[in-house]
Fold this protein.
Amino acid sequence: MRTLKDILGKKKFLKSDVGIEIEAEGEGMRIVDTAIWRTESDGSLRPKGGFPNLCAEFVLTQPIPVATVKPALQQLKEELAGAVFKFSSRCSVHIHVNVLNLEYQQMLAMIYAYYLLEEPFMTYCGKSRKGNNFCLRLADAEGQLDSVMGLIRDGEEGVYRLPGDRSRYSALNVEALGKYGSLEFRGMEGNLDVNRIDIWCNALVRLREFAVAQNDPTGVQKKYQELGGKKFLDFVLGDLAEHFVYRGVGRDIDYGFSISFDFPLMWERVNAKAPVEYKDHDVGKVIAWREADAFMGRGGRVDVYNGENGTYVVKKRSTQNQKVVALF
Amino acid sequence: MLNMSIEDINQKYNNSVVMIDGAAKYVTKVISDEFLRVTDLRTQATEDLAVSPRNLKSPERIGFVNLFNSVIYGQRNSMRIMRNGLCKENVEFKVLECPSPKSKGTVLAHARTLYYPELADALENIYPDLKVALRKAKQHNGTVAFDKQFAVDCNADVWYKIYKVGKVVKGAVVFDDSAASLSCLLGDYNADA
């Protein structure tokens, strides 16, 4: 099976796990320019023109193994000794998790597993992050599901077709896939707490490992249905789960399952067996929505045309595989 | 008090739907950093309300909105718009190919105004139960949602978001084979049937 590295044609940093971006506001900051960290100006931070003393973004110069997150953060903290941080709701910590070594369906499994656990993850990331414009959850902005559903519907080509403005401000930004070969997790509130960020990075890497083990969204769904919410969290995160547990966490994971249900449903439909093969004389035939939907679900290729009264027209067939292309 | 400049409050909340003390309101004017002039979506009454980070929240997901005995599926997109509330720019409505006594264009145009009591029902998660929804759908030759994600039409067909996924048979939802796994989302309804 092809990995995302092959699909995206990327070659670098295959052994590293995470990239980190830390947005900060406060006083007494300075440009950090080391082998590990660089400093950037970020237009969303305040005050405008305050870079670098009053606001700045600190970014890893390149992705690093998750085991080295702690020393890297400690180095940044030492570089910024003397600075007084005032992290506002504009500030956040973004983690990019490298998925280049994952096969396509494993990456989808990781996205789905994240949606199941989004609520406990976001609770860990900070109360102010729920409903925050810069990192909207699936529970806040359901439109992001359309973007990730495109990844299922379009197969590997989906990574090139991600719509530009539907998920960039989601807590999980899939748009980073095409650019960096990573999934970007934007949930964590602004802070420079070494342990907190380290645990977050490790949890996300475990999520990736879990996704690889389950292999696809159906595997993730089965594991959730087998274990139930709280035990599912324990299974995915192991000893890190204790940092994400709170009263009612199981109910929140069940809610995540409910609102992301389209995801495994679409996966199942797209991967159902053997497309129906219409004959030549079926071209032009009017078919019902459900039939057209089932045809698509079994892997048939269709274009869209609004038929009348919920009916659809079989329009033409593919010359290569003799399957009819239904327009509806 | 919101601890923000008036400019920031304007940018984040004006002309958008927010939740204040759990009720859906449309913000028509920012009066100060403590008071907003709002229209209550349910009563359509205008009032000046004191707000703080504790009682002022962004609405959660929209889902099905019952409108004119038809349904439309609303969702917010996570795009680069600074408004915390729902506004015309960050909300999208999906039209279903379902029975509707009004034209789809009429339903869609009204839905986009974000200024009507039925939106309050959706945001406050108020839906009729399956039995009432089916009766109403048949009575008006339309479609009625009985859950944020599920609706039933006058032919007793069941819709999950924009997909037709099954039928109501003897008061219970029977899913098509390809959508059988959805039954776990509807446990209560079928248990009561």
In short: The CA atoms of residues 70 and 257 of chain A lie 32 Å apart.
